[in-house]
Design goal:
alpha/beta; Rossmann fold; 3 domains; about 35% helix; Thiamin_PyroP_enz_cen_dom; hydrolase activity, acting on acid carbon-carbon bonds, in ketonic substances
């Protein structure tokens, strides 16, 4: 190794190192870091900003409007690139960094790589207390940035320039590891950012990374294969990890070779095309009657790349109590959940190994016939559910209109509220990997920001496709400024704002547990004497978007066609019904806490009903 050195500041070393990292994807070498999102302030503008300026061509810095939305955009960028590329976010010391906390939690929950380069107070403490510093009287080393320990896979505070020699490779290794993938956080004290050090030039030599594929243990594969070969009613749960492993072809081939029905998680939507004969639909609380019927009747369940969260498992009521679960997952933590038979390893290699061990096995024909019959019934329900004019304007109708007019490679983005359930249940997948329903952290505000991040990634890889965002009025009001970001950066979005007058899905949950509507819809908020409708069209137009209102499905279709034809961000607003518009079928049981004691009989009755349903819940075995 060369003994040559180069004198750089800590900030300059960090950015020069990132600039030298590449990744090989399908034989093509690409820059690992696609650039970053930044809002400058004290704590990152003088030193980190200076370093970023000198690499602005190769590491483009997108100016954010809100640090939280920057993090959402970075998460969506990483999701589009199947966790093989990432963006960094840089924020100022204090409240700027604090705004990233929610986005870090989203990335952590969804196992997504994101690098946070955040300002910190002065290491010397000579000017303490500085502007926006949190002081802990008994622990002067404890600060705001320590809050990110809970939502980071890798966390470090750089207290000396030499530390980045160890910390940067460790952060990247974490972000690229299939089992440990998640956000990395580097706290950068304001003085240390500007301190210089004689770094070895070898640190900045170009490096090409490759994602590790961990082969599963042969004993675990043999045990899982034996269990599957004895199954009378097997089913595959296809999670988001199938796409991250780039194992869609292997999943499809495995299912076809053994004639095993496939049901999808929310993160696993778009693993199979809607038209595939073994695609039985989405499973769980926001699923389909077809997938839930198959899940409930299955005797052996092969979960591939899923963390088996409660919306997939129906709070662990979706499966028969005596059903056996096999969990193929790169992460040991996920593979062993609920006493699953674990197969720890890469999804592609795991499916290949299981397939070889199961040669000759095919699921019984009557079981496959049952699954397909259930799917036909569900397809008929969806066709009627999305039909315009079947009831007042609904999410499902809007989804159906867009689905019928979009191109196969258009990417759909939504999150939180009622839209994840409606998109998951009603969207008919036209191409692989084209659906981003953020429901790991179920985070309001992700929709438009995530759409912007996805569009940045999409424009790099397939600029001819569109990014389509479904957002409710509640999330729009929470975070909408990246409409302006998309206009400024020329990253076109098509945004469907579906206005139901407040937080209607939580109002639905409130009503479904016996409670009266209270403080969710604007019309039911006691502190709002005279509700009025927000003019979303004028608001979006003020940020530079083309914006129109659609009164019904026909007008929505015409507006969407115009948006497709335009090269500019378009916002289409349509009112939907808060009470009658919901998809009524396809729901598994979901555990919610309800009052054991209440003055209201309707609440007590629902409590008894929910507690009675708990008898179906698996207790971890």
């Amino acid at each position: 190794m060369s003994s040559e050195t180069i004198r750089l500041t800590t900030a300059q070393a960090i950015i020069r190192y990132l600039n030298a990292q590449f990744i090989e994807i399908d034989g093509t070498r690409q820059r690992l870091c696609g650039g970053g999102f930044g809002i400058f302030g004290h704590g990152n503008v003088t030193c980190l900003g200076e370093a970023l300026y000198d690499h602005r061509e190769t590491l483009p810095l997108y100016r954010g409007q809100n640090e939280q939305s920057m993090g959402f955009a970075a998460a969506a960028y990483a999701k589009y690139h199947l966790r093989q590329r990432f963006m960094f976010c840089t924020a100022s010391a204090g409240p700027g960094t604090a705004n990233l906390l929610t986005a870090a939690a989203l990335a952590h929950t969804n196992r997504l790589p994101m690098l946070m380069l955040c300002g910190d107070t002065f290491l010397t403490r000579l000017p303490d207390p500085v502007l926006q510093q949190i002081e802990h009287f008994g622990n002067p080393a404890l600060g705001l940035n320590d809050a990110f320990r809970a939502v980071s896979r890798y966390w470090d505070r750089i207290t000396h320039p030499a530390q980045v020699i160890q910390s940067l490779p460790a952060a990247l290794a974490t972000m690229l590891d299939p089992a440990d993938c998640g956000p990395a956080f580097l706290a950068l004290p304001q003085d240390v950012q500007g301190w210089a050090y004689d770094y070895p030039t070898a640190l900045f030599a170009e490096r090409t990374h490759r994602i590790r594929r961990q082969a599963p243990d042969t004993g675990e594969v043999a045990e899982a294969a034996a269990l599957l070969k004895g199954a009378k009613r097997p089913v595959i749960i296809a999670g988001g990890g199938v796409q991250y492993s780039r194992a869609v072809a292997e999943l499809t081939g495995f299912a076809e070779a053994h004639d095993i029905p496939v049901i999808e998680t929310i993160a696993g939507r778009a693993n199979l095309l809607d038209s595939h004969p073994l695609n039985i639909g989405p499973v769980g609380v926001t699923g389909s009657d077809s997938a839930n019927a198959v899940a409930e009747a299955a005797d052996v369940i092969l979960s591939v790349g899923s963390r088996l969260q409660d919306f997939t498992t129906g709070s662990w009521t979706a499966f028969a109590k005596d059903a056996r679960i096999i969990s193929l997952n790169a992460a040991r933590h996920d593979a062993g959940k609920h006493m699953s038979l674990p197969v720890v390893g890469d999804a592609r290699l795991g499916l290949q190994a299981l397939g070889a061990a199961m040669a000759g096995y095919r699921a019984p024909g009557d079981w496959v016939g049952f699954a397909r019959d259930e799917r036909k019934k569900w397809a008929a329900y969806v066709a009627e559910n999305i039909r315009p004019g079947n009831r007042p304007n609904s999410y499902a109708q809007a989804i159906g209109v867009v689905n019928a007019l979009c191109d196969p490679r258009d990417r759909v983005v939504t999150a939180a509220g009622g839209l994840p359930a409606e998109v998951t249940a009603n969207w008919r997948t036209l191409d692989i990997g084209t659906v981003d329903v953020e429901f790991g952290f179920s985070c309001m505000g992700y929709e438009i920001a995530g759409g912007w991040g996805a569009r940045i990634a999409q424009s790099e890889a397939e600029p001819e496709a569109d990014t389509i965002v479904f957002v409710g009025d509640g999330s729009y009001l929470l975070m909408n400024s990246d409409i302006y970001s998309s206009v400024l950066t020329g990253k076109k979005l098509i945004v469907l704002v579906l206005d139901n007058g407040g937080f209607a899905v939580i109002n639905k949950l409130q009503n479904n547990t016996g409670n009266e509507s209270f403080n969710n819809l604007f019309s039911d908020a006691p502190t709002i004497p005279e509700p009025f409708a927000v003019d979303f069209v004028s608001h979006a137009a003020a940020m530079g978007a083309d914006a129109v209102c659609a009164a019904n499905a026909d007008e929505l279709a015409e507006a969407f066609k115009a948006a497709k034809a335009s090269d500019k961000t378009s916002v289409i607003v349509m009112d939907v019904d808060a009470y009658e518009g919901w998809t009524a079928q396809g729901h598994a049981w979901w555990e919610v806490g309800t009052p054991e004691v209440s003055a209201h009989e309707t609440v007590r009755e629902k409590h008894r009903e929910i507690e009675g349903d708990r008898a179906r819940q698996r207790k971890g075995v």
